Amino acid sequence: MTLLDVLAVGAGLSLTWIIFQSRRPDSHYLPPGPKGLPIIGNVADMPSEKEWLTFAEWGRKWGGIISVKLLGRPMIIVNSASIMEELDKKGAIYSNRPVLEMGGELVGYSQTLVLIPYGQRFRTYRKHFSRYLGAQPIQNLYPLVEHETRRFLKRTLAKQEDLLAHLRKLAGGIILRSTYGYEVQDGEDPFVNLIEHANDNFNAATVPGAFPVDFFPVLKKLPEWFPGAGFLKTAREWAKDTAKMVEVPYNYTKEQMAAGSAVPSFVSTGLENESSLSADDIRDLKFTASSMYGGGADTTVSAEYAFFLAMVLNPDVQKKAQAEIDAVVGNTRLPNFGDRPHLPYVNAIVTEVLRWNSVAPTGVPHTAIEDGYVSGYFIPKNSIILANLWNMLHDEEVYPEPFKFDPERHIAAPGKEPQPDPRKVCFGYGRRICPGMYLAEASLYSCIVMSLAVFEIEKAVENGVPITPVHENTSGIISYPKPFKCMIKPRSEKAVALIAEEHHL
């Protein structure tokens, strides 16, 4: 899903609403920005890819908070971390989501955490996340994270050219086991395939301009046989896949519980007193569980993939981290979470990965629940609000040489404070801040520290020539480094032996 999805939201507004907005006496208090055209506003100005770069350029011209109009609907773009902090303090009125007709309403993702409107159900979902994935509860999942990371090491040693697929299996293994008590299979896994298929449908459903219903919501009331309404049949089929994503893993856990073989998980814990739960309680439990995979897997995989790219491009950083691990851990065992307080440079790499590679460059858009003011500018009700997180993480005044991968910037020197923590930026703001951030960071740390302990990550060599990859990112709400080649090999025979050790939860 790209930022242009938001255009579809604005395009569904009536002409009467557009004219009303243009005549509001307080419209001139909106933040500055590029001048648009009558009726359509700034639609023609909107970038089709890497939108964060265009927004950063606009920010340099008009300031830390700017605005554009999309078919009459204001979009507020925040380029400044200090202004985002102001939004954070007013999170109660800037925590709604735009309506996505095809992907959200018709395909069924409107009930997942990422799109559900701000309100009681949203707060219930967040309580579930906090109960199981909060700062303290997440420590109970450390053994699982370490177990799945060991499995990742084995897969990578066996077939290092499938790095990205192995990272996806790593993220899926952690989330499916912690959420449903399901252990992913090596090779093709039916649950991973089922969930990723449903997520692929969602991505297709939110391609800008792909479905007229996003522009004209009234079309969803047409019968399927009506000419041009074929999208309704597509939506019906995709909605079935969404339902399977929600129901199939949930039913697996219930079957395991009935058989007395269920392992502790988010769902099994939530169903311990099932007889006291209402139908709405069950529904919310199911959709919270399904939100855990969709909301956490892609971002974590993007960060882990970026780590391998950073090591290829910065061998000196890799060597320094490995020296720290060798000094603290030695070579007779793999590092674990107990070692983390004694590995400041490795922790700095974790933080720098999150800064250097923005996994969600513009985040997911928010909408204003009511009229308000931010940094002295008027923000009308229903405005789309977008935080350019990429720009905040690449601000030269905050992070000198922002395109350089430099973990040292996150380590405090005597008499000098470290740079602001990127984790306060990259996980969003307000009531919509990522509730899975503790699991994401724990997974990233485990992948990084164990990989550094046993692998050398180097440039691939073709025809005797080392290939230097380039750090470029894909467009979209979730952004990945573009595919790159590298060579991953064990550091020693002892490392091979450590990878091969059997490990059970």
UniProtKB/TrEMBL annotation:
Cofactor annotation: heme
Keyword Oxidoreductase: yes
SUPFAM superfamilies: Cytochrome P450
Binding site for heme: C434
MF-aspect GO terms: heme binding; iron ion binding; monooxygenase activity; oxidoreductase activity, acting on paired donors, with incorporation or reduction of molecular oxygen
Pathway participation: Secondary metabolite biosynthesis
Keyword Metal-binding assigned: yes
One of the Pfam families matching this protein, by short name: p450
InterPro entries: Cyt_P450 (IPR001128), Cyt_P450_CS (IPR017972), Cyt_P450_E_grp-I (IPR002401), Cyt_P450_sf (IPR036396), Cytochrome_P450_fung (IPR050364)
PANTHER family, per the entry: P450, PUTATIVE (EUROFUNG)-RELATED (PTHR46300:SF7), P450, PUTATIVE (EUROFUNG)-RELATED-RELATED (PTHR46300)
Family classification: Belongs to the cytochrome P450 family.
UniProt-recorded name of the protein: Cytochrome P450
